[in-house]
Amino acid sequence: MSARAIKGALLTLGFWLMVIVLVVYAVFPFYYAVITSFKPSSELFEVGYWIDHLDFSNYTAVLTQGSFLASIRNSIIVAVSVVAIALLLGLTASYALGRVRFRGRTRVMMLVLGVSMFPQVAVLSGLFEVIRTLNLYNSPGGLILSYTIFTLPFTVWVLTTFMRQLPDELEEAAIMDGASPWITLTKVFMPLMWPAMATTGLLAFIAAWNEFLFALTFTLTDSERTVPVAIALISGGSQYELPWGPIMAASVIVTVPLVILVLIFQRRIVSGLTAGAVKG
Amino acid sequence: MASHDTAVAGNTSRPSGRERGTRVRRRRVRAAWIFLTPMLIGLLLVAGWPLMRTFWFSMTDASLSQMGGASFIGLENYLVYDDGWYGVLADSLWWNSVWNTLYFTVVSVGCETVLGIIVALVLNANFRGRTLVRAAMLIPWAIPTIVSAKMWAWMLNDQFGIINHILISLGLIDMPLAWTANADLSMWAVIIVDVWKATPFVALLVLAALQMLPSDCYEAARVDGIHPVRVFFKVTLPLITPALLVAVIFRALDALRVFDVIYVLTSNASSTMTMSVYARQQLVEFQDVGYGSAASTLLFLIIALITVAYLYLGRRQLGGDS
């Protein structure tokens, strides 16, 4: 009996040890970035696990020198516009794909899924030409256009999954009353789709906020860069002496809003991610 | 959309039920295609057309400054004999990057799968603070790839990095390791970052599958006194395999096109160069749009092949219409 109790206690201990290891593994890199960002450059090269005193010099350096604020503004403009466009086009498309039976529906779904699996490099030269032709090179417009390639298929896919879960009775009543598909969509489904649209919009926002390849290729000047490119290109006197303090401060600035969003909406995010994948 | 509203208003002739049913259905199908049109045009503009142009450029001598005036040169960008073989397919650096990409994909997705299952099993247990732990697990997923690459680059810094510091104080190594500069280690540095960042995604998908499992077979197993490890391999694993496959495919397709982690951690170093890095270097830095497009086309074909195989296998789950 006591042997069993000991075994049980050991199992519980092992389990909690595992939980602690996993949490430390997940959180420590971010925690360490925060610590580093509050260190003055003189203390940067001593390894430490705690913050002794707050030093904001890295933050003032990032926010006052260069064009980091402009990058934040660009990132917000691009991400918000991309999400708005994707939701608008995605909502009507998901109604068609989720609620109406018609020939070719599976084919359209496959097309959407296929586009979402495109390697971005494969369209790089073609998109470069399109963006130049439309005079959008080195401007947020070019990024908004190019980001549609990954936000739109994703939005359509997830919204369609949510649309299918809504009960049939709603729509039947609307059809009996002679409502047109447009009225059915805007008056019956839209009010019910807000939670799903919030989830999808949030995921698309994060994807657009984090994008790097297009932003690096389709912008040229510092004032038009987005945040990831700005951080990647922060450089010091030479390749071997990167200003780690300001880099970590910039990283914390752009990550904290995302982490807060994720913590607030974690239930929604989990449901959106799994709707996008498991049911596909 | 005004035409739809007037169509409703004009519906006054009181047709018989069946006639009305067909008409409603036909109108719905027509509306469905109208609803789909903006999205399809959008995809054509940003995906279909650029892809076609990339195919075309791969058969021209286009350069970045002169994309319009390029002339057709057939398959010379891929392979040509001119006193020796030239072209992407004859470039040892390309085959090196193909190998790097495959190595990276297999190792990182493998680690993410195993680790993801462990995290999911932990999160599936009932314990106090589970929501908090799940939230903590989401943090790596939410952090931009560039930022996580920079964070790890700092932690893996050869002189001042905390990883070397820990390893030395634990007595595991004598000398600091040059994680990102050493050709033998840099691929592992990239894998470490990718595994850290992507494991939560796999874990969440597996967790969702775990939570849908029927509880009765577990009770039966418990009554029969079967060892939990055996239950996992005989009951749980087969039941979550479909979800696991989806997660693995999504991750594998992501890993095959990897670019940003590598660009930030090791730039264009040949020891970690992947197909995407190779293609972009040719295209943008060497300004050789034709050659770079040929490499992009090959990458596209490899990924398309895998995608088609996946779609073919997963077809039954897709449309829901028979």
TrEMBL record, chain A:
Q: Where are the transmembrane segments?
A: 12-34, 76-97, 109-131, 143-163, 184-209, 244-265
Can you say what this protein is called? Answer: Carbohydrate ABC transporter permease
User: Which UniProt keywords are present, listed alphabetically?
Assistant: Cell membrane, Membrane, Transmembrane, Transmembrane helix, Transport
- GO terms under biological process: transmembrane transport
Q: Does the record carry Cell inner membrane as a key word?
A: no
Record carries keyword Transmembrane: yes
Task: List the GO terms this entry assigns under cellular component, sorted alphabetically.
Answer: plasma membrane
* Location of the ABC transmembrane type-1 domain: 72-265
Q: What is its main location?
A: membrane
Q: What is the lineage of its organism?
A: Bacteria, Pseudomonadati, Pseudomonadota, Gammaproteobacteria, Oceanospirillales
Signal sequence extent? none
* Record localization: Cell membrane
TrEMBL record, chain B:
Q: Where does the record place the region Disordered?
A: 1-23
Output the CDD domains linked to this UniProt entry: TM_PBP2
**How does the UniProt record describe the way this protein sits in the membrane?**
Multi-pass membrane protein
One cellular component term (GO) for this entry is: plasma membrane
List localization entries.
Cell membrane
Could you tell me the keywords of this UniProt record? Cell membrane, Membrane, Transmembrane, Transmembrane helix, Transport
GO biological process terms on file:
transmembrane transport
SUPFAM superfamilies reported in the protein's UniProt record = MetI-like
The entry's family comment says: Belongs to the binding-protein-dependent transport system permease family.
InterPro entries with a match to the protein in the record: MetI-like, MetI-like_sf
Where mainly located?
membrane
Q: Which PROSITE patterns does UniProt cross-reference here?
A: ABC_TM1
The protein depicted here goes by the name Sugar ABC transporter permease
Q: Which Pfam families match?
A: BPD_transp_1
- Matches recorded under Gene3D superfamilies: MetI-like
In this protein, which residues make up the domain named ABC transmembrane type-1? 98-312
Q: Give the transmembrane region(s).
A: 31-52, 102-123, 135-156, 188-211, 231-250, 291-313
